[in-house]
Amino acid sequence: MTPLQTYFPLAIAFIVAGALAALLVGAAALLGPRRPSAVKAAPFECGSDPIGSARERFGVKFYMVALLFIVFDVEAVFVYPWAVLLRDLGWSGYIAMAFFAFTLVIGLAYVWKKGALEMETD
Amino acid sequence: MEQLIGNNLASVAGFRPELVLTFGSIALLVLDLVLRRSRSRRALLAGAAVIVLGLAAVLLAAQSTASTPLFNGMIASDAFATFFKWIFLAAGFLTVLIVAQGDDYPSPRVGEFYGLLLAVVLGMFLMASATNLLTIYMSIELVSMVSYVLAGFRKSDRKAAEASLKYVIYGSVASGVMLFGMSYLYGLLGTFDVLAFAPKIAELSATTGAAGAATKLALVVAVVFVSSGVGYKIASVPWHMWCPDVYEGAPTPFTAFLSVGPKAAGFALALRFFLGSFAGPMGANGMAESIAGIPWPAVIGVLSAVTMTLGNLTAIAQTNLKRLLAYSSIAHAGYTLMGLATLSALGMQGVMIYMLIYLVMNLGAFLVVIVVAEATGSESIFDYSGLVHRHPLAAIAFGIFLFSLTGLPPFAGFTGKWYLFYAVIERASGPAGFWYGALAVVGALNTAVSLYYYARIIRAMFLEAPHVTDRVAPKLGYQLMLGAFSAAILVFGIWWAPIVEWSQRSMVMLRG
Amino acid sequence: MPRKIVIWVVLAALVVTFVGVLGARMAEGAVLPEIILGPLGLTDALFYLFAAMTFAGAATVALSKNILHSALGLLAALMGTGSLYVFLSADFLAVTQLLVYIGGVLVLILFAVMLTNRITEVKISNASLGLVGGGALLVATVPVLVFVAIATPWATIVPAELAPTTREIGNAFLTRWLLPFELASLVLLATLIGAVVIARKELKQDEPDTSVS
Fold first, then answer.
1. CA distance A56 to chain B (A)
2. Is C180 a member of any domain?
3. Structural domain spans, chain B
4. Which of A10, A113, C170, C195 is the S-S candidate for A81 at Cβ 3.0 to 4.6 Å?
């Protein structure tokens, strides 16, 4: 089978997703009644008057979490091929993987202890 | 598969120093957490780092230097790698000693520094022994990744932030270009194994016509691209742009480490890469010819000449000592490249000797910068006026290091330069000798230029009147280290036989 | 107004039928016949489509003045690269690309854009575009690279049948390429620690570094 044939269902999924999104947005734009007023045009902030810009600066802590996510995301990607072969590789594979995971567990412990995961607001 | 696993298991025996560094690095991070409240935290952490390095040194000394491939040909264990590993251990050890006394790294954060420093040392070990494109890439990444962090350690300092950012951006571009070059190499040669390159290239060079020309061109393009990763580590033109900013912005002890450790690792990698894969075996006269007649010596020679000229000419205008030393380190990368350009045994030996001596003299020079910065809070050349009156030992030691960096006898730098120039001149009588001669002349002219700006510092220190008269009182440890470095420079400037013999013995490299 | 509605309904019906027919055919076990579009097969056409998408995305990243557009361009470039992996029958790599780069790195970059206050107003200090130097480099390298890419007899292998690569990758990682694999974990560790070192207490600019955290 060519890649095209194998991945055809995937292509269909993408096409359907795109078409559905376009359909919904388009239908809403076409069919929805449009009666703008000043109150509706104002940004909604739980009923109170909007204060300042919407582009507020995020705390750097959130970025830390995102960064940690990527590191462990990559780890998961590395673990996956091993998991597929768990029985074939036996103990040697287990030990190799154990070291890999051990390193990252140390990293996690370090990050945790250093307080990078605490979410207090500065 | 059984065989591959068996080889991995057997390789552990030849990998003990690296294992110690790996687990030592992890252990230091754990210790950093455990000793959070301890009062003697600084001393304990420094002690632990020294113990790890010492243990690695003991195991390295006990290890056989016979050439063996390890981990299914990922790395090689040979005398050549061992020579450089000693340089890296020394660089790491001396940096730990400097950091332990200084206040560049405050107590809460010094544990991280030691842990990461050991990781860099491990990365450099692997750079010096990598014989596979993937290991080359991973080891360079390990060194780079940690260096980015350590360069940006002083966060409240905008210069450090700028330095770290520039380092990251240039570094990613360089490693991206290197990966692209590696993909070409793989596409041409069909293997990642650096040791298997030479026969494949010889085979490819039999192709004639347009395809043959394209193959050779592709090979040159690929190697030039791969060199960007190496050139970045040794700070040679045109991959030198990060160097002054990073050297200025990074904490000085780490700058010192950066200027000697990764540079030596880059040269080790380059020597193995070019001599092992792109040049034939050395003949009886100690000279190797490049495979398929691709003019590597010309390419490297031009790089060398441009690098040293640019480094030296730009250094003249600098007033910040760290920037000046950064440009001087670019220039020294240029001198050392001369040894690589000759593709000969003597050139290889020259590079090894030079890196060893450069370690002492450049670390020493940066140590003086640290001492003066701790006393005056300044890295400007103007604050070096009359240093001899304020602290004679620092001034005299700096004078020795600077003369040695220039390459004047009777200092050790002369020994290093002598071997590099000798290797070039040895080639000057052979084919394309004119160009080697020209390279030697450019090198000599550059040495003269470098004397000018080194002498400017020396004049300021010895002949100018100090702006302030209070005496600088460096810590005893610094004084001892300055004394030891100066003594080493003086001793090896006169009695260089041990270095030469050691490097002679260490020239055995695993070949495919 | 009603005409528009009719058009939309017809379009929706078309999509639904298309999916339904294809789904039914695939349920029967039919495979897509190889479609030939003029000189290019459909596979080739798709390859060029994805290559163009990658290229356009990369160009947007480099040339767009709005950093958000650059980030979206990066999305296109990464998606295109992922699709190209599929053509190289590297399915695991394609999924990894999706998972790590699009699911992680791209989100991180968008995050960074949002983290940076008033990023659009900041005058970038290094405004030198270096057009001359860049142009010279382009003129010097592009012909060489194009010539090399076209004329070189690359060491190629005949693409094997499309098969899952995950097992082979696992095998390679844990046997032959064990050392680089373990090295990767150290690089990740260094990244983790580095993230803490760089990001911690970033907000408190003038705080002395000596405080115990």
1. 23
2. yes
3. 283-512
4. C170
CB contact under 8 A, A106 and B8: no
Q: Chain A contact for C158, CB < 8 A?
A: no
The pLDDT tens digits for C97-153 are: 988 998 888 888 887 777 766 555 555 545 556 778 888 988 988 988 888 888 888
Whether omega before B238 lies within 30 degrees of 0, making that bond cis, reads: yes
Residue type, B61: A
In a domain, C53, yes or no: yes
- How do B68-70 and C40-41 pair as beta strands? unpaired
A109 touches chain B (CB under 8 A): yes
Smallest Cβ distance to C144: which of B25, B126, B217? B217
Q: Which two tokens stand for residue C55?
A: 């290229």
B99-124 pLDDT, tens digit per residue, is 998 877 877 888 889 999 999 999 99
Confidence band (pLDDT; 50, 70, 90) for C180? very high
Q: Which of residues 143-182 of C touch B (CB under 8 A)?
A: 144-145, 147-148, 150-155, 171, 175-180
User: Please, what is the angle between helix B79-101 and helix B252-277, to 10°?
Assistant: 170
B187 to chain A, minimum CA–CA distance in Å? 22
Under 8 Å CB-to-CB from A81, ≥6 apart: which residues?
C92, C166, C167, C169, C170, C171, C173
What's the pLDDT score for residue C210? 43
Interface test with C, best of B75, B139, B145, B239 (most C CBs within 10 A): B145
Q: How far is CA C180 from CA A2, A83, B238, C100, in A?
A: 32, 19, 29, 19
Interface A-B: count of C-beta contacts within 8 A = 15
Condensed to tens digits (0 to 9), the pLDDT of residues B449-491 reads 999 999 999 999 999 888 777 777 778 889 999 999 999 999 9
Is-contact B392 B466, C-beta < 8 A? no
Contacts of B132 (CB under 8 A, 6+ apart): B73, B74, B75, B192, B193, B194, C180
By Cβ distance, the residue of A106, A113, A114 closest to B26 is A106
Domain ranges of chain A: 3-113
Using a CB–CB cutoff of 8 Å, tell me whether B146 touches chain C: yes
Indicate the average pLDDT of chain A. 80
Q: pTM (2 decimals)?
A: 0.89
In a domain, C133, yes or no: no
Give the domain range for residue C183.
163-197
Check if CATH label 3.55.40.20 holds for domain A3-113.
no
pLDDT confidence of residue C212? 42
Query: How many independent structural domains does chain C possess?
Result: 2
Pairing mode, strands C40-41 and C36-37 = antiparallel
Confidence category of residue C203, pLDDT binned at 50, 70, 90: very low
CATH assignment at residue C104:
1.20.120.1200
ipTM summary value: 0.89
Specify the residue for token string 């195991």: B59
- Name the residue among A121, A53, A74 with its Cα closest to residue C108: A74
Res. B23 pLDDT band, cuts 50 70 90: very high
Q: State the DSSP H helix or E strand holding residue C35, giving kind and residue range, or none if neither.
A: none
- 3-class secondary structure, C206: coil
Residue C209 has pLDDT above 50, yes or no: no
Q: What is the dihedral of CA B80, B68, B287, B229, to 10 degrees?
A: -60
